[in-house]
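Entry type: protein chain
Record version: 2
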Amino acid sequence: MKKTHLFAVAALCTLVVSCGKKGGMSLGDNEFPVVTVSSQSAESQTTYPATLKGVQDVEIHPKVQGFITQINVKQGQTVSAGQVMFVLDNKTYQAAVRSAQAAVNTAKASLNTAKLTYENSKQLYENKVIGDFQLQSAQNAYTSAQAAVAQAEASLASAKESLSFCYVKSPASGVVGELPYKVGALASASTALTTVSNNSGMEVYFSMTEKDVLSMTKAQGNVQNAISALAKR
């Protein structure tokens, strides 16, 4: 009987302790902190990697092949249209011009001879010293000499033009870009010596994900409106 009494007392004590702890929660207090949730506008920003370019970017390529002997500009320098930027080795082209000039001189000398012969033949023909064949032959020789002079002068003009290509000029006004080639480098028509950029206005090139494009299009109604809205930001 004593053991059973002790167990009953222990159980009662446990119940009293539990009730004491439960009473510390202040069950009668029904006030709680309240936070009012309201809506407000917010803007999210998305960053895109972009490339800046001028309204006109012109790559500078030489029209002939040769070693670079002079670089007359610096990166970031402002140049005008027609300004000489690079000079290529032009000894071979200078020799071609001299040879073409000599050919012109020879052709002109032959033309003078043919002209005198033809004029003399006309006088002889008028005096009935020579016949039609001799006169026609002299005239043909004179015409051929004229054609030879024209051909030689065309070759000279071509040689001079090739020589001028050794002086690489800027086709437009702008700012000089990177100069990847130095004096002594071999340049050709496929070599981009530098870039001249007209930076009076700048253009930005960047790519967007398909998800962003669709989202903007849905919000603005169509692609054109989406682009217009993006440009105003």
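Comment: The mean pLDDT is 84.
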